Amino acid sequence: MDFKEELKKYQEIINCELEKYLRKEQCPEEILNQSMEYSLMAGGKRLRPILVLATYRLFRTDIETCMPFAVAIEMVHNFSLIHDDLPGIDNDDFRHGKPTNHKQFNEATAILAGDGLLNQAYIVISNTLQNTKKEELNKKIAVFQEFSKAVDRMIAGEFVDTEFEGKPISEDYLDYIHKNKTGALLTLCVRMGAILAESSKEDLDRLISYAEKIGLAFQIKDDILSEEGNEEILGKPVGNDKKLGKCTYVSKYGLAEAKEKLARLTKEATEELKPYREKAEFLIELANYIEKRNK
Amino acid sequence: MDFKEELKKYQEIINCELEKYLRKEQCPEEILNQSMEYSLMAGGKRLRPILVLATYRLFRTDIETCMPFAVAIEMVHNFSLIHDDLPGIDNDDFRHGKPTNHKQFNEATAILAGDGLLNQAYIVISNTLQNTKKEELNKKIAVFQEFSKAVDRMIAGEFVDTEFEGKPISEDYLDYIHKNKTGALLTLCVRMGAILAESSKEDLDRLISYAEKIGLAFQIKDDILSEEGNEEILGKPVGNDKKLGKCTYVSKYGLAEAKEKLARLTKEATEELKPYREKAEFLIELANYIEKRNK
Fold it and tell me: How many CB atoms within 10 Å of residue A138?
């Protein structure tokens, strides 16, 4: 199957699963559900859950095992987007070409929908633990622990990013922001896939290195798109980082160096996967996709 | 031991445990940690963790088993207070006689500190699952599941409360708000204590009935204090509910009927505990304390 087809197929599977795991309780909180669904189903790339599934498939085929965790990580990702967009943080009006959650609903709803999505991820995890056979429990509990720690790092990364808005920032701190705000969840994806598939320690290390590199590449590409992307394709205004005085890879090192680093990281990431040969084809293409994407 | 002494002793134990389980990672996110600690250690009554421990002690003495869950529920409670106080929701300036989190720090920090506390609760739970013997795992996973569902109900209750601000509200909806916004966590406390102590189904039902009644009593008392409490003792302005046009038990039924209902609920709650005789003395006094408290 060609990469774009396979990516689309993955996205369809994920979208279908997300609908299943959404908050269902209705009356009188319909609007809360709608608000959570609005952001979760707004058409993201589903990069994180796809990374979980594709990592798992390097080793095993029964992807149902990791589906709840794949769904949970997408919920957490969307919770973070809703809260980051809030007037009190980035104050963004558009995402994926649609009004942000607080613009579509209101601020109170957006705060609580974000809270609800974060918590829903843990409802999904607790349900899957409850339905797990004894001999499989240990690895799922390990995944739950990794999950909660990665979310913590993501929140801390977002905090430091916000703290340094409009201030000069050292290379170390910029690195910290990238590694945590974006990197923590992306690394978690491969970690979850590998732990659930019971991969070797060597495989795990290799995959984490791949994920760290594409995580940083993803963030640098985000910074580049935020500087010179196409607003219509991106579905959000370009130049907001600059306006807010955000310190990004681009503002610190310039466009040329950022692009060079992006290409180098992508190459290094794909090299990590060579031992898996054709089995890793999709993950290799995924790294290239992150480098070349225009939204 | 007299009730007030025992309450104080419990509070000291909880405060000491909370410090242990706080987010520790430092540099460069010290302020995030400070903000989480600021609200968590601001001097709440610790009603929820105490309820977990006191319920557990009806049946067993080794309270260390439920300590992580007691800590986690207090973290969730404080996350909900930080977010409820935000300008986008209740816009409150004071809590426990101190500036609210977003007043002391800023809005972005308060949003992320709330997120961090909610997630920290799940870090604590995942760590305790990781360190649990196989034969004890089932009940702790059941507690994790109840925990995540109760937090969801709390968020939904807060959402409906916010939605109906300044609008007329039916008795059913007011009931829904009380049962979920405050009741869900209070019921969770006894549920966790009873499940962890492996109580009988009959005991569980009895304790849930007790918790539902003191939960509603707690909310009604809150509404009464918000109308006629002493600002200095309360540590927050009185009359905010009225100003916001919040529909409360008092605004809907009047002070006299609210007080009557409060007394009736307290009496019914304590009657549920009669079978436990002197063992339940503390929980009975706790119900009376909720009725009589002036903050």
Answer: 15
- Nearest by CB to A137, which of B23, B137, B176? B137
Strand partners, B99: B94
The question of ipTM being above 0.90 is answered as: yes
Reported as a single tens digit per residue, the pLDDT across A160-210 is 999 988 888 888 888 899 899 999 999 999 999 999 999 999 999 999 999
Provide the 8-state DSSP code for A47.
Answer: H
Beta strand A94-95 with A98-99: parallel, antiparallel or unpaired?
Answer: antiparallel
Cβ contact A83–B112 (<8 Å) = yes
Q: Residue B62: is it exposed, middle or buried by C-beta count within 10 angstroms (0-12/13-18/19+)?
A: exposed
In the numeric block, which tokens belong to residue A105?
């609903």
Strands A94-95 and B98-99: unpaired
Cβ within 8 Å, pair B114-A115: yes
Instruction: Note the Cα A218 to chain centre separation in Å.
Output: 10
Instruction: Report the CATH number at residue A198.
Output: 1.10.600.10
| Cα–Cα distance measured from residue B224 to residue B140, given in angstroms and rounded to the nearest whole number | 37
Domain total in chain A: 1
Show the domain range for B183: 3-292
Across the interface, do B127 and A116 touch by the CB < 8 Å criterion? no
CA pair distance A182, A175, nearest whole angstrom: 11
The answer to whether A44 and A74 have CB atoms below 8 angstroms apart is: yes
CA-angle at B94, arms to B92 and B100, nearest 5°? 80
The full 3-state SS of B140-151, as one line of letters, equals HHHHHHHHHHHH
- Rounded to the nearest angstrom, the minimum Cα separation between A289 and chain B is 31
Q: Do A114 and B114 touch (CB under 8 A)?
A: no
For residue A172, give the chain B residue with the closest CA. B28
CA B62-B63-B69 angle, 5° bins: 140
Residue A22 CA: distances (Å) to CA of A54, A72, A115, A163: 23, 10, 14, 33
CB A258 within 8 A of CB A223: yes
Phi/psi of residue A98, nearest 5 degrees: -125, 160
Interface test with B, best of A105, A112, A176, A178 (most B CBs within 10 A): A112
Tokens of B117: 């506390």
Nearest to B32 among A120, A156, A176 (CB): A156
Nearest CA in chain A to B126: A145
Whether the full predicted model's pTM is greater than 0.90, yes or no, is yes
User: For the segment A118-161, what is each residue's pLDDT rounded down to a tens digit?
Assistant: 999 999 999 999 999 999 999 999 999 999 999 999 999 999 99
DSSP letters spanning A38-93: HHHTS----HHHHHHHHHHTTT-S-GGGGHHHHHHHHHHHHHHHHHHHSTTTT---
The residues that bridge with B95 in the sheet, in sequence order, are B98
